[in-house]
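Dock zinc ion; give full complex structure.
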Amino acid sequence: MAGELKPLSLKRVGDGLQVQWSDGVTTVTPWRTLRKNCPCASCTEERAKPPDPFRVLSPQEVAAGAPQPVAMQPVGHYAYKITWNDGHDTGIYPVERLRQLGEESK
Ligand SMILES: [Zn+2]
């Protein structure tokens, strides 16, 4: 691939994030997928554990329902920080990760 892969535009489309990339590809990633794949240390650790069928949802999780971002801001040139409606804000998504999680839309 020639040059750096960069997002040219990011926008909220329905229940997901639409990204137009510098190589001409457009991807859409559902917010749920992004939230589930939060790259922060505590979520990564959480995903490494076996699932607990008796896990109780925190009051924030119950109140929040479907994950929605309340803010998204660039961190340097190669990552975005997403603040979620459940109050979680430690996830910083590198642009390559956004690309991996995206589904190509035509
Ligand atoms: Zn996280």
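Observed: Residues 38, 40, 42-43, 88, 90-91 surround zinc ion (CB under 6 Å).
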